[in-house]
Automatic annotation (TrEMBL):
It comes from the Eukaryota. One of its GO terms (molecular function) is RNA binding. Residues 19-98 form the RRM domain. It comes from Sciurus vulgaris. SUPFAM superfamilies: RNA-binding domain, RBD. GO terms for cellular component: nucleoplasm. Keywords: RNA-binding. Pfam families: RRM_1. This is Splicing regulatory glutamic acid and lysine rich protein 1. The gene is SREK1.
Amino acid sequence: MNSGAGFGLGLGFGLTPTAVIQVTNLSSAVTSEQMRTLFSFLGEIEELRLYPPDNAPLAFSSKVCYVKFRDPSSVGVAQHLTNTVFIDRALIVVPCAEVMQPTRTVVMCNTTFDHRENTVLGKRPCLISFGS
């Protein structure tokens, strides 16, 4: 479903193509550098965020990663990595809607991952802010 505003992945509901993906079901052992290496083969990465970060003092059972590509067409390619086993888990890659604000980009995803409690819940929107 393309909005006609160029090549990319349309999200429906009048949203324009996005350049951001959410990667879930990540091993707790994964690092930002490993994620950057994996997704850099698909397109130039503008920004990458891993939660919890590499230097988190607590242990978590899984992680979630957000990748913002320079070119929205990389999102469609990245989705083909869904169910690819990386370290010890099958990746889940979904596009995220971007809402542009003057100094930052806010990413909205429909996810089953609760970033506040690190638990799996029913689908709910989550917000991740990119930029300053």
